[in-house]
Structure formats: structure tokens, C-alpha cells
Amino acid sequence: MGKVNPKAKIVPFRGEYYELVPEKRYLVKGLIYPVPNPEFPFLGVHLTRMINGSVHAGPNAVLSFKREGYKKTDFDARDFAEVITYSGFWKLAVKHANNGIQEIIRSFSKTAFTRSLQQLIPEIQERDLIPTHAGVRAQALMNDGKLVDDFLICCDDNSIHVCNAPSPAATSSIEIGKAIVKQIPHQEHLLPITIR
């Protein structure tokens, strides 16, 4: 990234989902979230009614051992070494050890995952959940162990870098683009750019 040092690294977190069986979809009419813990950087498992009527439950948030590690068994030695040798990761892990352990348990125990959902809807049973897809969140993590929960835009002599673009980056991409373009006047050495 040129001369830019954002003082952050991208750490992959896998989020695993279940789908609610059709007979229990009536329990969820929209979005159901737990009350967030402002000290913990992830929302916790929640329920989302999709456009097609299906209901997704999740995600949890566990360290992925590979940048594109969508399965528990995915592993890349270089990716893993980059994370575990980063001091920011260990600061995050120590600060949120209890939450991290709970996330790992939820990853390997459908019972634990179900219990988390029962805090939102007590009627949900383990048999009501079907394993489905997983996603990987590319999360910027600062050297001090804090997750970057906003956009991280850095400039060097010749370029502007978007180092972190959290949700809803895709849905707000036009406004993000406008904000990036506003950085250009502060970079007099960059060529003028015309936007039509």
C-alpha cells in the first residue's frame, strides 16, 4: 500500500448460520437482534427474515484460520501465522476472552447456538435449525486490539486507500465514493479527476 501505514491488519472472522425450518418461520416477521454489548465488537446471533420468506439465524463470530475460510476445517499456515503473530490480535483476545470462548462453543455446539436464539425466541428448539452457509468478515484490527468499526481511509503521496469498509459499504457505496473524492483536494499532487 505504498507508504500508508494504517496501524491495522485485516483479520478474518467466520460467521456461521442456521436456517429455521419452514414450520417455525412464522415466529419471525422481520429482524430480531439481541441488545448489543457495547464492550463486545460483534452483535451476537440474531434472526433475519429473508425476501424469499426463509429465516436465517446467526452469525456467530469465530477466528477463521484462512482468509477465505468458510469451513471450520479450512486452514492456511501463512494466513494463520499472520494473525497469531500480530500483537493487536492478542490484545483483542485477552480483552474478550470469555466472549471468544462462547463464540467458539457456539461454533461447535448446536445446543449452545440454540440457547442463544432462545434468549430471543424461547420456542425455538435445536431440531428447528438446519445448518446453512457461512461468511467471512474481513475485519480491520488496530495495533491496540480495537476493531475498526468505521471506515478507515488513509492517504499517501500518490494515492488514497480504503483500508476498512464495514457494513453497509455496498449499500452506501455512492456516498462513500463521494467522501473519498472529497479527499482529493487535500492531495494537490494527485491529477484532477472529473466525475460525471
UniProtKB/TrEMBL annotation:
Q: Which UniProt keywords apply?
A: FAD, Flavoprotein, Oxidoreductase
Q: Where is each FAD dependent oxidoreductase domain found?
A: 6-181
User: Its GO CC terms?
Assistant: cytoplasm
Supply one GO molecular-function term.
(S)-2-hydroxyglutarate dehydrogenase activity
Q: Which cofactor does it need?
A: FAD
Q: Which Gene3D superfamilies match?
A: D-Amino Acid Oxidase, subunit A, domain 2 (3.30.9.10)
Query: What would be one Pfam family of this protein?
Result: DAO
User: Would the keyword Disulfide bond be found if you checked this record's keyword annotation?
Assistant: no
The record ties this protein, via InterPro entries, to: FAD-dep_OxRdtase (IPR006076)
What is the name attached to this protein's record? FAD dependent oxidoreductase domain-containing protein
Q: Which organism is it from?
A: Richelia intracellularis HH01
